[in-house]
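Researcher: Final request for today, and then I'll write up notes for the group meeting. The sequence and the SMILES for NAP follow.
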Amino acid sequence: MDVKDKVVLITGASGGIGSELARLLARKGALLALMSRNVNTLNKLKEELGNSAIVVAGDVGDEKSAEKAVKDTLGHFKRLDILINNAGSAYHGSIEHMDMKAFDSMMKTNVYGVIIMIQHSLPFLKKTKGMVVNISSVASKRAIPMLGAYSGSKSMVDAISDALRVETMGYGIKVLNFCPPEVDTDFAKNAAKERGIDFEAQKNLRRAMTLKPDKVARMIVNGIEKEKREIVAMKSIRPVNYFMPGVLDKLFYRFIMKPYKDRYSS
Ligand SMILES: NC(=O)c1ccc[n+]([C@@H]2O[C@H](COP(=O)([O-])OP(=O)(O)OC[C@H]3O[C@@H](n4cnc5c(N)ncnc54)[C@H](OP(=O)(O)O)[C@@H]3O)[C@@H](O)[C@H]2O)c1
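Model: Predicted protein-NAP complex:
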């Protein structure tokens, strides 16, 4: 799908991957509705992008604001071609000590939010034979310790993408599921900070495995243009987890659990 002149609603546009996606899509001639809760950051991005963008602030986990975001997009641009479900949050902590309120809040954004944004957008995407892009994670393919609930929320995003792709095939709608590895944004750092974890301790491992958000944006837009069904931006994860899951257990234990053993051993 050529993105030029297409109307794209991006959730989580005030953050790392979402902002880079907006910049790249604007350069390619797309018209953008930028959604997230932080209006000030969205307004700054809009100023940078000019008339090709509008701000439709709101919380994806809130039914009314999801509905309003789609309505405002339609009110301004009169059509919707692509919905990018990029907004996401992480819960960082063990299964044993999981804070269930934080779990609920994350699920509301990562799962409930994805579904209601799709529900409100579909009537209009059917008219344009448009596209839904869901930003999942490689953690959906193999759960990461201390991110068990987050990994599960992204496995649900994969399931939503697979079901939706077939359910909407008859309408000519395309569904791209994009699974990035760790990306150099505030995302992982914020989640860790909330739990009092020092990410500096894992600096070298992280540097080797982290992608820059502008590169991730290019991969996503390439996937849209080529109408791919799924991109897992760490090809080894599935075969390694399938043939050698125990090796991953040991690697995760060595590099993720051991540095924090004292903290979580109570
Ligand atoms: N960074 C990584 O390592 C990584 C790896 C794999 C997958 N991902 C996924 O990639 C996506 C983008 O992540 P990122 O790294 O760009 O994160 P980020 O820099 O933290 O940005 C997250 C964005 O989501 C928005 N957001 C969060 N909760 C929201 C809600 N309830 N309603 C509306 N907007 C909300 C935030 O804006 P407001 O706070 O203003 O609402 C922000 O714009 C997420 O789905 C994440 O799970 C990230």
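Model: DSSP finds eleven helices and seven strands in the chain. The longest strand covers residues 174-179.
Researcher: Thanks, that's everything.
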